[in-house]
What does this fold into?
Amino acid sequence: MSEPAATTAPGDARGRGVAVQMLDMKRSYGSVQALVGLSIEMAPGELVALLGPSGCGKTTALRALAGLDDLDSGRILVDGRDISNVPANKRDMGMVFQAYSLFPNMTARDNVAYGLLLRGVDTATRRRRAGEMLELVGLETQVDKYPHQMSGGQQQRVALARALAIEPTVLLLDEPLSALDAKVRRQLREEIRRIQIMVGTTTLFVTHDQEEALALGDRVGVMSAGRLEQIARPTELYDRPATRFVAEFVGLTNRVAGTARDGRVAVLGTSLPLLEGSDATGSVTALIRPESVRLSAEPGAANHVVAVSFLGSLSRAQVQLPSGELVVAQMAAADVADLAPGTAVRVTVLPAPVFAVAP
Amino acid sequence: MTATRGSGQTRQRVARAAIILLIGGYLLLPMFAMLDFSTRGPGGSRTLDSFIAIGSNRDLLEGIFNSLATAVLTVMGMLLLLVPTMTWTIVRVPRMRRVVEFLCLLPLAIPAIVLVVGIAPVYRGVTFLFGGSALTLVFIDIILVLPFAYRALDGALRSIDVATLADAGRSLGASWPRVIRQIIVPNIRPGILSASVLAVALVLGEFTISSLLNFDTLQVTINLIGKRDAFISVAVCLAALTFAFVLIYAIAAFGSADQRRRQVAKEDE
It folds into this structure.
């Protein structure tokens, strides 16, 4: 397991964001350890996506940052100020929840203006600011609607506007898209990114959806069993996983038998460099990305195409090796067009570094 | 098929009318009997003397005031006790929900006479601290209405996502009292209305405890007057029943109007 503390953020400060440091956070529920010394540092204006399976502690970390859950130990610094003992309503953080959280008795405008009301902002300014925020999320025509008159996507947009209206020090997004259908989810995901870049608020985004995390995050932190496995830029996380868990959890992976020696692994007739943290000697299972696998039709070859899935510009072909192992290759759709099921193919692997684990 | 559906609807209408008539008769016949009895005058004439006498009977007026004031204070006390407690339990200590439910339902299982025997020594302290006013019945009445009020409020709280709404309010900067006052209460209004109706009905009808603790409430006074003048006693009963019906109808109408307003808003979408 890698050291979880090595998490310093890149210094790409934006807008009016503030630095956030979560240091050695621990939290247990009975015998279950939800957070095991979790440390994450966020640069001003950065969007960090916390990714992990259900129960890995990502929501607990976010709620601890919001002040909605208590920590057993650890510290939280925002802009250098220790807020570990500050109650949730004094932390000045905006939050969007997984469940629809608009106040049912208030219109969209009143929902957005509520945080400003609590801050003693006068009525005219509240109305103007709420209108601006709803315009920012594309709902300027829905200001007088009640939550039950809006779709799920609209409700989450209003919730985002409500969270941003108070000009929070930190924006917290707790799986805000998980209740929406795929198309709305993609649209809103892009909108969240656009707005976050525009306002420049430091943002923590919790999700179990890899695509969402990789698409949105300046950096993505992968959590497992209360620990941070790795935090890195999306491309680094994908191409150079630091642990077995990250290699297996993030993206699609082929598990192919190989032999490791001297920092390299021989697999499918190609010698590939091993990533740090891999099992480095003897028989291993190499974890190879589908896009690193290449296929070419070769009559008489021992590998056969089993199935082809068309994904638009890309296609995925499943190939059975003589050993019985199945390997998935992801290539441009045009390159797979001639590979019908049953076609004999040659399988090669691009010489990118791979992660290897004990078989 | 259309004919079958038509005859089915007719049968349903007839059944509905029969049920309404039956229930209406069950409720209204005794009231007509009470009206008939309380308006009897000498020589078969009709008079409203019994009803007019209500206004001039000091004991009765005191009993009415005591019961109404106790009912209002009981509703306020019950809501102040239950709404924050139940909200807090849901949001912060959900595992205690069963315990709170058990404690609230407990008075249902204890007979009033047992409750009085147990609470009489406590009331000596209450009388010492707050005086001998009948309004001190509020303390025991709050306990009596807990089971009914809990059920009504629990249903309303289950219909909204209390934990998420409270978290949202807190993250926007609201203190706990504000969360309850501005976010939770407006969204459980039907439950609050139901709990209040039940509490009022229970307090106005409560006799055993008031009588055993020697407080002059409406029911105790009616009982005493009944021994002296049955006509006034029945007139008061009829007035009290009518008042209770009107109150319940008004609250139900208020609830339906609210529901209709929401429905209209939904249809305007």
